[in-house]
Design goal:
- With 267 residues, the chain is an alpha/beta fold.
- The chain folds into two domains: 157 residues, Rossmann fold, CATH 3.40.50.1000; 98 residues, Eukaryotic phosphomannomutase, cap domain (Hypothetical Protein, Haloacid Dehalogenase-like Hydrolase, Chain: A, domain 2, 2-Layer Sandwich), CATH 3.30.1240.20.
- Helices cover 34% and strands 18% of the residues.
- The strands form two sheets. It has a seven-stranded mixed β-sheet. It has a four-stranded antiparallel β-sheet with strand order 6-7-9-8.
- It is globular, with a radius of gyration of 18 Å.
Length: 267
């Protein structure tokens, strides 16, 4: 019997250039060459809208078997959004209260409004004290399972995004901010991960990309291959890349992802 295999892909930096659309030639490769050989899943920290934008439209849920947005807190299988039964998830690292949920779990319910507002107020206060080459708008994006925090603001242009990425590598703006948050909120139960060019995520511990693996356990895959670019400690691919349930593949960019797939499947 042939092995039942799934390939899971980070989106930004793995299937696409940062915040760009997937190259149509790579999309064709995935559909025509890879899809007949294995199941394909996408797992991103972004919400579904952003994943759909980068993957050529909302029919992405029809073109790929599994779409795990917001690390799997929202997920689609075979074109339909699936319900989350927390009793069926065995590998969450923390659950302060045991409860049954149909639909989507959310961060405000898990953390509580009081703690959440204190955290957000501190973030806004911290951002008001730092000086950057430019600042734009949308510094905190509230998602279902996380807060996405951008010191420069998500409304920056692509040119400003690229320039901030270089500046951040020199000045460690995001790293320093994460350290400040850890010091201020040592018991809030958040994990922080840097992803993309301009932001980082704050989410309940256990709600990283390994969350999506809980949905795959009943599927009976023999091998789960994960491809991602931010696999270093503190990157948003680190936990799933190092999880014992996956075979991790570190990639440099979409072209490298295709090269590794060609080698893995002898294409």
């Amino acid at each position: 019997m042939p092995k039942k295999i799934i390939c899971l892909f980070d989106v930004d930096g793995t299937l696409t250039k940062p915040r760009n659309d997937i190259d149509p030639r790579f999309e064709l490769f995935l559909q025509q060459k890879l899809k007949p050989l294995c199941a394909i899943g996408l797992v991103g920290g972004s919400d579904f809208k952003k994943i759909a934008e980068q993957m050529c439209g909302e029919d992405v849920i029809e073109r790929y078997q599994y779409i795990f947005s917001e690390n799997g807190l929202v997920y689609h299988k075979n074109g339909k959004e699936e319900s989350i039964n927390m009793f069926s998830i065995h590998n969450l690292y923390i659950l302060s209260d045991i409860y049954f949920i149909l639909g989507r779990e959310n961060i405000q319910k898990h953390i509580g409004e009081d703690k959440l507002q204190k955290f957000i107020n501190f973030v806004l206060g911290y951002l008001s004290t730092i000086v950057l080459p430019v600042k734009r708008g949308t510094f905190i994006e509230f998602r279902t399972g996380m807060l996405n925090i951008s010191p420069i603001g998500r409304n920056c242009s692509q040119k400003e995004r690229d320039e901030f990425e270089i500046y951040d590598k020199q000045e460690k703006i995001r790293e320093k901010m994460i350290e400040a948050l850890k010091k201020e909120f040592p018991d809030i139960g958040f994990t922080y991960s840097i992803g993309g060019q301009i932001s980082f995520d704050a989410f309940p511990t256990g709600w990283d990309k390994t969350f999506c693996l809980n949905h795959l356990e009943p599927e009976g895959f023999d091998e789960i291959h994960f491809f991602g670019d931010k696999v270093y400690k503190g990157g948003n691919d680190y936990e799933i890349f190092n999880d014992s349930r996956t075979i991790g593949h570190k990639v440099l960019n979409p072209q490298d992802t295709q090269r590794q797939l060609e080698a893995l499947f002898n294409l």
